[in-house]
Amino acid sequence: MGFIFFMTACVPISPLPPLPTNTPLPSTKTPTPTVIWFPPTATHTPFPTQVVSTPTMDLRPGTGKILFTDDFSDASGWTLITTAAGSVALGKNELSIVINQSKAYIYSAREEPIFIDFYIEIIANPSLCRGMDEYGLLLRVTPNLDYYRFGLSCDGEARLDRIYRSQAISPQIWMPSSAIPPGAPSTSRLAVWVVGDDLRFFVNDEYLFTVRDPLITSGSVGLYARSSGDMPVTISFSDLVVQEVVR
Q1: What pLDDT, on a 0 to 100 scale, did the predictor assign at position 246?
Q2: Buried b / exposed e along 199-213 (16+ C-beta atoms within 10 A)
Q3: Theoretical Cys-Cys bridge with 107: which of 18, 98, 224, 246, CB 3.0 to 4.6 Å?
Q4: Number of domains in the chain
Q5: Alpha helices of 93-177 — where are they, by DSSP H?
Q6: Residue 128 and residue 133: Cα distance in Å, rounded?
Q7: Which CATH number is 189's domain given?
Q8: Residue 213: helix, strand or coil by DSSP?
Q9: How far is CA 209 from CA 46, 51, 84, 133, 141, in A?
Q10: What domain range includes position 129?
Q11: pTM, two decimal places
């Protein structure tokens, strides 16, 4: 049994975290003054950092044996549901998220298997989307609903959010990339290489960015979509593969 959650602009059905603000993080190459993002707590919350790549860095993921695959021919592990806000449904070897309401957010996450270090790929096919409508992957989803959210927008941008204790920040704000086809219908292969606190993000075999964050160390995976306006959104996902990493 998986998790599925909805959020709309009008009726907050579940206590989902707010959207993060588009505040860029300090690069590891350029020191900046310390920024206090949240009030002091008993437990220190590490702040993620962006990593600036150089031409000599080898960012290609090393992969080994397959740990998990899902061709979406069986609903096991995913919650399928239909409501006024939208639906998560199984098609022919694909899982589709359909949003019918304005500014709604739907995501569905598996409870298992749990991964620590891994490489993940999935194919996303937007068939209805525009502008800043978005879709993508959830990584290291915990039972407390902490996770990383790797998203693509329908106008060809990418970003990463971290959701932790109902607080949302963006280790990587929206960045345009020629690797992401804008509009719909289109097809993109999302890939992430996750080792310890090192997360590297790729689209259609092109490297996008790296973020280092030690906070969420393991969890399951999930999928999501969000509508930015009043138009319906439909995203289909297929060919989920998780492999071990070779360092």
Answers
A1: 86
A2: bbbbbeeebbbbbbb
A3: 224
A4: 1
A5: none
A6: 9
A7: 2.60.120.560
A8: coil
A9: 19, 7, 36, 21, 21
A10: 3-15+48-245
A11: 0.81
